[in-house]
Specification:
Blueprint: H1 17-33, H2 37-53, H3 61-64
Helix pairs in contact: 1-2
Length: 65
């Protein structure tokens, strides 16, 4: 059995919703090519929800500019 090691997630790291949704779309494309159409559709839906939600840490930044 193969063991997978993962690095701890640093909560101080901020992810861009655009970058995250781009990665989800790339995964959806790969899933669709591999024949996992249902999974691809779920990933696209998730990518859209990430974009719709936006970046909460940017709320109000436009009004401060």
């Amino acid at each position: 059995m193969t063991q997978v090691q993962s690095a701890p997630i640093d909560p101080a790291i901020v992810f861009s919703p655009l970058m995250l949704s781009d990665q989800l779309i790339a995964l959806a494309q790969a899933a669709d090519v591999a024949g996992y159409t249902g999974t691809a559709e779920q990933l696209v839906t998730l990518a859209f929800s990430v974009l719709d939600r936006g970046a909460p840490w940017l709320d109000g930044c436009a009004s401060k500019a």
